[in-house]
Amino acid sequence: MTRQLREVVFVDGVRTPFGKAKGQYAETRADDLVIKCIRDLLRRNPDLPPERIDEVAIAATTQIGDQGLTLGRTAGLLSGLPASVPGFAIDRMCAGAMTAVTTTAGGIAFGSYDVVIAGGVEHMGRHPMGEGVDPNPRIVAERIVDPDALVMGNTAENVHDRYPAITKERCDALAVRSQQRAAAAYEAGIIQPDLVPVATRSAQEGWGLATVDEPMRPGTTVEQLAGLKTPFRPHGRVTAGNAAGINDGATACLLADEETARELGLPVRMRMVGFAFAGVEPEVMAVGPIPATEKALAKAGLSIEDIDAFEINEAFAVQVLAFLDHFGLAEDDERVNPYGGAIAFGHPLASSGVRLMTQLARQFEARPEARYGLTSMCIGLGMGGTVIWENPHWSAHQEQGEAAIIDSAGKVA
Amino acid sequence: MTELSTLIERATALASEDEVVTTARLRKVALPAGAGVMGLITLDNGLDHTRPNTFGPRGLISLDAAIDAALADDEIVALGVTGKPFILAAGADLTTLAAAGPDGVRVIAELGHAVFRRLIDGGKPSFGFINGLALGGGLEVALHCTYRTILDTAAAVGLPEVMLGLVPGWGGSHLLPNLIGPERATTVFIENPLNNGRTLTGAQAFGLGIADAMFTGADFLERSLSWAGDVLTGTITVERTEIDRGEAWDAAVRRAEGVVAGRTGGASPAGVRAVDLLAGARAASRDEGFAAEDDALEAMSRTPELLASLYSFDLVQKRAKRPAGAPDRALARKVTKVGIVGAGLMASQMALLFVQRLKVPVVLTDLDQSRADKGVAYVHAELDKRLAAGKASPDATNRLKALVSGTVDQASAFADADFVIEAVFEELSVKRQVFAAVEKVVSPETILATNTSSLSITEMAADLDHPERLVGFHFFNPVAVMPLLEIIRGKETDEATLATAFATGKALKKTAVLVKDSPSFIVNRLLGRFMGEVARIADDGTPIEVVDRAFAGVTPMPPYLLIALVGPAIALHNGETLHAAFPERFHVSANLRAVVEAGKPGFYAPGTFEVDPAVAELMTIGTTVLDETQVRRRTLEALADETSRMLEEGVASAPEDIDLAMITGAGFCFWNGGLTMLLDREGISTAVLGRTFH
């Protein structure tokens, strides 16, 4: 039998507004957050018969309590998907949703799935990182990982040690820029269309409705950031201001085989070119995106110059700067996180990968001149992940008269 | 109408420190689609969903304050009302209501109206988001809103007040017929309450037009808020069916009257009053309609039926769930297999119930295989009916059918049974033989239960090696329908056996009442005294037709109709058994014996309420003719006497258990509080006993 690889496309992505831990979602269940996203994806894409969904892959880092019980399956059932639609739970710490996407994308390309839902959730208010873990004593006894590396802030400080050129001032400036860009994107209405409102329970205040990202601090200045504490080291560089916070939120996206998307009349907002994950020493986990990106570019036969749009997860400003310095990109490059990043919006661990993709899809829509883009993130325990995407709106592509002809709304004509 | 501020003052005076206050929490919510800000009010009593929100005086005042704040805030364009998870509200706080007295009830009625109607008259559109259970005042608060959404799986939606001896008095009686039409409203606030308090699911309520939109639980409030935004911006226009205020309204009122007559014989004041309100709702203005509700509520609060209904409600809601005198549940043994001696109709009905509820193997045994097979066939046929009606899945039906078997070989069938119950001929020697045989093949701990309706458990156990494991387990016919299960403790019955009997009764979803070993236990003894007295009166000369008319509003059916239903022979047998025990009080009717001996199916000519001439010829009657009032009085006096004796003998632990048994086992009326409340309020207890039961 001959086998033909199929194109994987990003159809649509949504997320809940992100919350601060103990904030707007303090009394809202984690699984409910991702259920709202799945429901909204179905409503936004009424042409998709729910029974055509072949898999629901949902990530969470801490898979216990309301993030346990085989999330992808329970979330599917609780979302009202037909019982015939299967699902599973997935974990790669911060890159959970990204891995949900790449794993199911592999299944689509292989021909096992036509349409999937991939996403993630992390309710860090209910499930702080490291909740209930039982690290193997060999980690210490055999010095496999410096125990300090289990605390992400320490690893960020370690990256500063490795790259002395990345100063706290540069990090703070990047953080302020992230807040400003996020505020401008909100102002321009770029973020809100992909947010799913969530009814928030509060025994004290009554029901509310979450419609905006709670962590944002639009007026932040470098002066304010300069004065913040450095909790991981005395006189260190990593602060609450130049890192993402402790957050609650969920994301989900629809991926499809391109021909199926065409058949069902689903929009094609991005086309997957390739992906790679790479490991680094856990002590400097934040450099993970560099080897992951190099590997992904190499496998795709592209170079960094081919990439015109970037969504890099701002777990820590230092991690973004390490990436930019490595690839020779300016720290205020307009093509990198133009709508702001995790420092402004928040980083509910396993959910963030799809937020990057949703924002890259918006970049592609706004910038048809950009042909390729990438989403990249660092991952706890020393890893990085990168997914390279092609812009279906790319104008030169149309001129060449290749197969896909895309209208302005992103629908396959 | 009294000023709101005055009502609040009066209600504050009524308010109890013990009120579990449902607080109304106002929060501003930006609606999607730029529809502006909603003042969203969440009703929350701070407890979980097992303790629903209710409205007492302080709760209503809290809601008033929240509505005040929302109306005063210029940023707020619309109001919304919803509840804590799974619950909107379960209606008025019955404890406050019961304690308030008629004047207090009037204040609470008017205050509820005054507060709720600000959702109509406040000048801002309002939305009721029915997010779960919404009963009585819980539904009425939503009915006051301009628009409503409802959760499709909401567990209980309805206006059950009439069941409790009340009427929907916070707008329900007026608003509902004007919203969904009189015919559908009759079903919701008259027929369902009188049908054991039946309620609607969210989907059913939506189908009747109670809500304008229905959403599912995954994102009910999000969709409701989004829908509200669309309504406010004009994207969605709400359309409702026009109501026929002509002949259809008359027809609905006639049907409602028929329902009330059929269910209560007109004896429940609340049912009658609800029909009046329905009739009036056609032409009444809102002010008039609400004023009529205030009057009706106050009038109901002056009826003894209200307190009696609340008493009955407490019995079936609370006492039935925690039977008085039941041992610690921890002592109960596990029942993993049930044996039934006998395979006749009673045995087969029990087999059906056991297998459906316990889902364990059930073996019917009889003297020959064909009888055993017939019993199994009955159970299978009943299970197939449920399958055909879509009430059970094929897999679940297969499972239950495979669990039921029939055999003549007790030794192998009962060897590993944990619970063996007999349903053989009602004769002590027969039952003793049965248990002597069963005891040879079961383990020493197997519970032995008897479905006897009259015989002594202690005597039945006398010759057993292990008399401590025999217990009375008396079902009422039809087994599937009647809730009552009398559990009878013999002299030797031990705690583990009794605990297992109660645990099994609970698993069977029956209302279990503990009874002392005594002739015919509670229900049959009182019915026996009742029927004996009735027969004595008829034998003495009062026409049967007059006798039968005397008990409307006391018993579910006239006594001579009951004889036809259970069969004259069984009625006679019960009377004779009791006569043997208490010859001085229990009358055995020679005329009844004559009917039995002649093989007649009853006293009435089949299908009529007139005495069959052939039966009349058999009867010997006296010349003392009483009227209906006298018949009723004399019979109830006899019941007061018997009840008092039973309590003295310790047959039941309290009047509450007698009433619970008479309501659930004999169908005595809910709004009378069963029996003892009726005897007290009609002065019969005092006349006969010189004291009241309560």
Q: Overall mean pLDDT score of chain B? A: 95
Largest sheet of chain A: 10 strands, mixed
Q: Which architecture of the largest domain in chain B per CATH?
A: Alpha-Beta Complex
**Runs of chain A with pLDDT <50, length 5+?**
401-413
Please report the number of helical segments of chain A: 13
Tell me what the structure shows.
The complex is a heterodimer of chains A (413) and B (694). Chain A has 413 residues and is α+β, with helices and mostly antiparallel strands. Chain A has helices at 30-44, 71-78, 96-110, 138-141, 152-162, 168-187, 222-226, 258-264, 289-300, 317-327, 342-345, 352-366, 395-399; strands at 8-15, 19-20, 53-59, 87-90, 115-123, 198-200, 208-210, 247-257, 270-279, 307-312, 372-379, 383-390. In chain A, strands 1, 2, 3, 4, 5, 8, 9, 10, 11 and 12 form a ten-stranded mixed β-sheet that branches. Chain A has a two-stranded antiparallel ribbon with strand order 6-7. Chain A starts with 7 loop residues before the first strand and ends in a 14-residue tail after the last helix. Chain B has 694 residues and is an alpha/beta fold. Chain B folds into three domains: 4-160 and 171-187 and 195-243, 2-enoyl-CoA Hydratase, Chain A, domain 1, CATH 3.90.226; 329-516, NAD(P)-binding Rossmann-like Domain (Rossmann fold), CATH 3.40.50; 523-650, N-(1-d-carboxylethyl)-l-norvaline Dehydrogenase, domain 2, CATH 1.10.1040. In chain B, strand 10 (338-341), helix 14 and strand 11 (362-365) form a beta-alpha-beta unit. In chain B, helix 24 crosses helix 25 (590-597). The two termini of chain B are 37 Å apart. The model of chain B has no long low-confidence stretch (mean pLDDT 95). Chain A binds chain B through residues 35-36, 39, 78-80, 196-199, 201-209, 211, and chain B through 25-27, 29-32, 40-42, 44, 46, 82, 84-85, 216, 218-222, 225-226.
